[in-house]
Amino acid sequence: MPDGTQKKPSRIQKRNRRVILDAALEVFSKQGYRGATLDQIATEAGLSKPNILYYFQGKEDIHLTLLSQLMETWLDPLVELDPDGDPQTEILAYVQRKLDMARDLPRESRLFAGEILQGAPRMGPHLESDLKPLFDEKCAVIAGWIDAGKIAPLDPHHLIFSIWAATQHYADFAAQVSVLLGKDADPHQSASDHLSAMFGKMLRP
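Given the sequence above, the corresponding structure tokens read:
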């Protein structure tokens, strides 16, 4: 166009992009990046492979788009940790938010885990620029609570790692959880009660 602006995507184009990204999330979360193919994504989306390539340059472009969209959502629970709140209440609320995310966004959790297991080849810059400063900031908040005697003297870094491990397990290892607890079991409430009791006891000064 003469003024250099791009034509806005139509409603159908926006819909097709959403369909492709949702299909890709399903495929990547099950097959991993290396196991996923454009043919699988096209089949899941109900579109042709050339149609997929009309919207995205290839598999890596789709994967990067999903990861970029995920990053803000992934950081939000930690962002909400309030330095001015009651320390135990804030940390236990963070545990609950992470557990809720494991229940509500299991595919996104597995997408993120798969990328990290590969060494974060596409996500590395985001981890450095987005996650690391936020992680350091919240670790400093927790350290301040410890110094003030408001919670037990724990290593803030490993406390957060433990929260991630204990909550994301229910998404990343859902198949194993289903076998061990029974396919009809809903572990969310019992997991919430258990983690609240465990971290509550751990945090007590």
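The chain has a mean pLDDT of 92. Try to locate this feature in the token string yourself.
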